[in-house]
Amino acid sequence: MTTTENHSKYDSDTRAVTLRVNGREVTREVPTRQTLADFLRDDLDLVSVHLGCEHGVCGCCTVLLDGGSVRSCLMLAVQAVGHEVETVESLSADQNALHPIQEAFAEEQGLQCGFCTPAMVLRTKEILADGVERSDDEVRNEISGILCRCTGYQNIINAVQNAGRKLRCGNSGTCAKEA
Ligand code: FES
Ligand code: FES
Question: Does residue 145's CB lie within 6 angstroms of at least one atom of ligand 1?
Answer without folding.
Answer: no
